[in-house]
User: Fold these one by one.
Assistant:
Number 1:
Amino acid sequence: MNDTRPVGVTGRFEIDIASKIYRGADGAEVLAIRDFRLEIEPESMTVLMGPSGCGKTTFLRILAGLDHDFSGSLDMPEEARIGFMFQEPRLLPWRTVRRNIELVADPGFTDEDLLQLAEALNIADKLTVYPGELSLGLARRAALARAFATRPDLLLLDEPFVSLDEPTADRLRRLLLEVWSARPTTAVMVTHNPREAVMLADKLVLLAPRPTRVVEIISIDTPQAERDPAAIEAIYAELLQRYPENFAGL
Amino acid sequence: MIAQPNRDAKSGSRRAWAASLISFLVFVGIWYVAAAVADSRLLPGPVEVVEYTVDEAIHGPLLSELGITLWRVAASFVVAMVIGCVIGIILGQSPKLNRLFDPWLIVLLNLPALVIIILAYVWFGLTEAAAIGAVALNKIPNVIVTLREGARALDPGLDEMARAYRMPPMERLRHVVLPQLQPYIAAASRTGLSLIWKIVLVVELLGRPNGVGFELHLNFQLFNVTAILGYTLAFITVMLAIEFFLVQPFERYTTRWRNRPV
């Protein structure tokens, strides 16, 4: 059906999903993804944007190697290490935040690295507590720390800032950018928030609803560090004019 | 004022202790009075029984018999828990295998303990292995049913997380699967221990030349009720000690992450 073959050292990811079929509980088949082709540049932030329930999570699960039941091909570096930030934090409630991070961390990731990362994300004082004692915002930071601690070849972010109040979400986006810029990583993020997409993306991929396919790939050339609120609004307004169906009403 | 709930909890547990103690003393009191009124060899009082137990421990075989029985309890318990957990987890994860083996499980669950013990002795002889195997086999279906429930309730989100992060299988078992099964394992071992030590006595009574069950049988034939109650007292004391000093502290340790305020 599909083949996942390593492509040497370029660190490029080439995704070509001809089709992905879902079997519903009633046995009916649903075409979730069709002719999805995407190339991901190393050390870039690719943001996929589309309406809710359009198969974005399915796509991330295929990229992470959690779902092999599709037809098409996936070219990625051999034994790519994955860092995955899910919609919910998915921390192990019976392990402290520190253990949660250490359990999946890269072997070369030292205690000092951990402390540095925790300080950058403002959770250094939470390392010894259990996840049940954290607010959602703090738990998301811990999950982000865990994802970076693996030193991933590919960082996957599945709507990591939903159900947070806007100031908290905004602070977290800035923290993500900070940590990400300190150690550039190939990242793919999924969101349905257009302003978030404009703030973070190097490449913005617009998706059509089910069956999911690529409508347009937009490069945003302004470096993320230079995108102040005014710049973000400007880019957003421009895109809203060019792609009204994709940016309005989302 | 922040310490208030804590102090309340402490005095609450002290009150619970006092209530248990009073209830225990009332029980001993009733026993004492009943024995005094009956004034019969067939109902010895608490003092007599304790005296017998101490004397039998110092001069008699009580301690060695107790040791042998405890060893059988431990061996059957370990065998039943290991086999039951493995099969339970497999059946919980695979609906296909579960459908296949569910009828076997129902038969085994409803097979009387005595039948299993008799058949084990008939088929495998009056041996230690037959005795321990028979006890374990009585407990295994219970463990399977409990752990099957636990394996069905495993969080698929955490499993996906572990797979995405490429956690090795042993790490996944230790950090992701077993902590989720902990309450089920605790429930299975709690009921397991109480079931097993009762059945071990029957096994000893029917076909072993030593152990507490053998002594009970011997003293039953001699109509020595003091000895029967003495051995029972010693055995119950040991099982309570195991519950309070091993099972409960271990449970507190494994659920420590749950006891903290959110």
Number 2:
Amino acid sequence: MSLPIRVLLAKVGLDGHDRGVKVVARTLRDAGMDVIYTGLHRTPEEVVNAAVQEDVDILGVSLLSGAHMTICPKIMRLLKDKDAEDTIVVVGGVVPDEDVIPLRDMGVKELLLQDTTPKEIVARLEKLVQERGPR
Amino acid sequence: MPISSADLVARLKKGDLRAASRLMSRAESNDDETLSSLGAIYRAAGRAHIVGLTGVPGSGKSTLVSKLVETIRKDGRRVGVIAIDPSSPFSGGAILGDRIRMTNLVMDEGVFIRSMATRGSTGGLARSALTAVDILDTVGFDVIIIETVGVGQDEVEIAKASHSTLVVSAPGLGDDVQAIKAGILEIADIHVVSKCDRSDSNRTITDLKIMLAMGVNIAIKDRGGKPLWQVPVVGTSSETGEGIDTLIATLDRHRDVHRTTELGEERLRNIAEYRTFKTAEDLLRSQFYKSTNKRIQDVVEQIARRELDPFTASNDLLKKIAF
């Protein structure tokens, strides 16, 4: 019996919209994953601490506020500092096209933006964990 | 190449929290290397005070845990929390939401919170909850709180696994007949009535006290008949902070009574017995699934048509388990 994929879903900074991330949480649960949700208005430090303690496979950051280019580098740096670089970071929400490549360059493994279907989200996360292999 | 579990255990013993969180993940698999590492961790553990906390859904368990931890931290003790939520019986997935009520603790280096899903185990405990407790104990946490899934009336395993069991009741959830039923209320070492800022909380406290007084063994006594522990009812409010200090003092007193009298040894023996049975049961179950899954599929048709019965079939399957 293989273990469920563990995912931490986070809302960071001044972003009060969490309908989307809750739909994603439910979708991932229904796909058999263990989903931990941080609640609204977390700091990057809080999110990374939670990701380390929970030892999640995937850290999903939901951002609708436009602050992704400030928040994502912080998260990536903190994960490195905490010896948790093997956490797969994905970003969901609203991100302009020109920021996609810079985000990937800093280590964000996948961007699941507003038109991604639930089925596709599940498939892409499963693939990322499979590619990473056992740890 | 993943780091070996033995290396992780060495790092754990030096206090490495990253190693702790990785070992908790590995502990869920049953391979031989992990099992032997878990054995080493179990043997190294044994210092922490393990507190079980249970109660019906919505009784305020997570909020109480966050208040308790915040207050225990003031005297410098490090606190670990294992927060358990239910898995979906259909997909096997889970949404683990206890952390949302503990956000005040996330930035404290002396606090470690781990969320777990029940994943098919009944009784309110996740299968690997107790190995996670050993891991937190070994890495140096002084108090470890296990918050069970919000249980109904009969999920009492937590009492077999912890040094001190808290049962949380909230006002307005039932009358005094609920309180005299068997089950969850009987397992408490300490009763907590939460939401004591509410006006009907006195009624709940009184009901519990009457229920306790009806019992023949009001106090737990030693062999000479000297009373060692009487189950108290403590009212708390996570809103105002009322009763939290009293609850911690009561918990510490319960721990001390156990550490200094025969009650403690007896409890430790019971926990050891429970864990051994439980571990064997888990191994047996996974072995059973592994070696019989296909054969079960072969016979279910026959059982459904009532040509074969589940008793004969499972007896046969058990005999065929390959070890």
